[in-house]
Amino acid sequence: MIDKVIISIASKLDEYIKNKLSLNEQSVIVSSLVDLKGNLNQDIENKITIFLLNIEEEKLSKNANMTSNAGSNPAIKINIHLMFSAHFPNFNYLEALKYTSLVIEFFQAHSTFSSSNTPGLPLNVSKIHAEMLNISIEEIGKLWGNIGANYVPSVAYKLKHIYFKDEGFSSDSALITG
Fold first, then answer.
1. What are the phi and psi torsion angles at 126 (to 5°)?
2. What tens digit of pLDDT does each residue of 106-133 get?
3. E strands present in 25-139
4. What is the pLDDT of residue 169?
5. CA 48 – CA 43 distance, rounded (Å)
6. Mean per-residue pLDDT for 59-87?
7. Residue 11 to residue 26: CA distance in whole angstroms
8. Average confidence score pLDDT of the chain
């Protein structure tokens, strides 16, 4: 389910950037920045790359309206933290800043996602809320060090209220609610 959420939002962001900059080629990808050996992924150049930073349980709603059937696990809500990084090599720093600004503009215009306004999200999606995630300078330094890449202009967002419910072995057993 997490993959479908990220891919759907990436597609919508890609369309937004293409329209703003009159581009034909893909401008947003979902990918890691480096491989397991620490080599930089060449597919990320001149694009916004989206990658997962963290998954957290939504604690505020843990006990609210969470019921389960006998023999199944109780439903949980999660939040996912995503990084949107702009890798533009060869001293093209201003272009990286432009693309990062477009990501911020996109989320200012689109802070709520549902199956009705975001193609690719499952039809049972109610709402996903997006908010900017503040990361301190110290944390960002550690993060990029752990990734094994040099810092590039980037911004992180939290996508809130992804609802998972145990409904057997179906691949589409997750729901998203607001």
1. -90, -70
2. 999 999 998 888 888 866 667 899 999 9
3. 28-30, 47-57, 76-87, 112-113, 128-133
4. 36
5. 10
6. 73
7. 9
8. 84
Task: Answer whether residue 172 shows pLDDT above 60.
Answer: no
Mean pLDDT of 81-92: 91
CATH topology of domain 2-62+73-176: STM4215-like (3.30.2000)
Token pair, residue 131, equals 């908010």
CA gap 123, 174 in Å, rounded? 11
Structure tokens of 12? 């919508």
Does the structure show a pLDDT above 70 at 177?
A: no
Q: In 3D, which of 120, 116, 88, 121 has the Cα closest to residue 102?
A: 88
Shortest CA distance to 152 belongs to which of 84, 87, 95, 91? 87
At 14, phi and psi to the nearest 5? -60, -45
pTM: 0.84
Position 16: which residue type? Y
- Within 10 angstroms of residue 178's Cβ, the number of other Cβ atoms is 13
Partners of 28 in beta bridges: 48
What letter does residue 164 receive in the DSSP assignment?
Answer: E
How far apart are the C-alpha atoms of 176 and 171, rounded to whole Å?
Answer: 14
Delimit the domains of the chain by residue range. Answer: 2-62+73-176
Tokens matching residue 38: 């620490």
Per-residue tokens: 105: 């503009």
